[in-house]
Design brief:
With 346 residues, the chain is of the alpha/beta class. Helices cover 27% and strands 23% of the residues. Helix 5 packs parallel to helix 6. Bound molecules: iron/sulfur cluster. The site of iron/sulfur cluster has 13 residues, from loops.
């Protein structure tokens, strides 16, 4: 993947939510949900974005797509497709596109939501749900649209003859397939998959993950795959970005992330991933204390209160995200000197 061109580059992305109090709802603070995030995704790769609940990963995905307005930063999208948004290959800063330009951009950028129960309108048939993006963008009409919908349903493993049915007539896994078909309808280049399997039964999670991989190959898709489950991230991702309290703390190729973690938070996260080997000697590292509030994050390294390697400098100075070579980025003052526990990946 390293030789491929960068499709999406996020620079200094911030999303702060004001905290209001009193009868005049005066702003008394800010929740820094996304705080100076830098990352990039290459064409055709899957970047896994992982972290504990509330770390800002979903907000990052939505700010990238402009489903919520970023507070600051750039989201540079280098489309290879010719579309209504402009010439192919032209760099577009999604964060700066005026509202009237967003519709054209949506053809290339789609999302798969976490909850297949609430993300599908129960009053619409599957045909209407999957066909809606085609209708909004005026792409196909009549029998041509019907044909495309049938092909999309077949591509996600659903029976096209069921397109007149309503979402409640399908299982959770089938509903998520409908959501995936809708996301594919406009032939996007990038899909943000926001915890796409966490609301599904364990028995069908693997089916949906395998489907996403097959579709990636078939349609040349690029994924930002958001999840809190590192086992899934390990399975599907080419590279992994770890987020803690609104910041990216480590980014690396998947194998390097698991076999040679460089950030103490990543070390603790990967130590909790089950390894199917009875002889494996690794110990789970239990993090002490709660995740600090993003309303009042600790000074210096946000992780210092829970870090077993913390030193004085960690309480005072914010570590920068540094490239240690081979696209392994870490924000820890001692990333070069710490010897952290790896796990083996199959
Ligand atoms: Fe731990 Fe210090 Fe590194 Fe933060 S900078 S992860 S506190 S060692």
């Amino acid at each position: 993947m390293a030789g491929r061109e960068i499709l999406l580059e996020v620079r200094h992305l911030k999303k702060y939510f004001p905290v209001r109090k009193g009868i005049f709802l005066r702003a008394v603070g800010q929740v820094k949900a996304v705080d100076d995030v830098d990352l990039y995704i290459r064409e055709g790769e899957t970047l896994g974005l992982v972290g504990e609940s509330g770390c800002g990963k979903t907000t990052t995905g939505r700010a990238i797509l402009r489903l919520i307005e970023p507070t600051a930063g750039q989201v540079l999208f280098r489309s290879k497709k010719r579309s209504g948004s402009g010439e192919s290959g032209r760099e577009i800063d999604i964060a700066a596109v005026p509202p009237e330009g967003l519709k054209a951009l949506r053809r290339n950028l789609q999302i798969i939501f976490q909850d297949p129960y609430s993300s599908l309108d129960p009053r619409m048939t599957v045909e209407e749900i999957v066909g809606e993006p085609l209708q909004v963008h005026g792409i196909a009409k009549g029998s041509e649209r019907e044909d495309r919908i049938q092909k999309l349903l077949a591509a996600v493993g659903l029976n096209p003859e069921q397109m007149k049915r309503y979402p409640h007539q399908f299982s959770g896994g089938q509903r998520q397939r409908i959501g995936i078909a809708r996301a594919l309808a406009l032939e996007p280049e990038l899909i943000v998959a926001d915890e796409p399997i966490s609301a599904l039964d364990v028995s069908i999670q693997a089916q949906v993950v395998n489907l996403l991989q097959d579709l990636q190959e078939q349609f040349g898709l690029t994924y930002l795959f958001i999840a809190h489950d590192l086992s899934v991230i390990k399975y599907i991702s080419d590279r992994v970005a770890v987020m803690y309290l609104g910041k990216i703390v480590e980014v690396a190729a998947t194998e390097a992330m698991f076999s040679d973690p460089k950030h103490p938070y990543t070390e603790a996260l990967v130590s909790a991933v089950p390894v199917p080997d009875p002889d494996y000697q690794g110990q789970q590292i239990l993090l002490e204390g709660d995740v600090p509030s993003p309303l009042n994050p600790p000074p210096g390294c946000h992780f210092h209160a829970r870090c077993r390697y913390a030193q004085e400098v960690c309480r005072a100075e914010v570590p920068l995200l540094r490239d240690l070579g081979e696209e392994h980025f870490v924000s820890c003052h001692f990333a070069d000197t710490l010897s952290l526990q790896p796990i083996r990946i199959e």
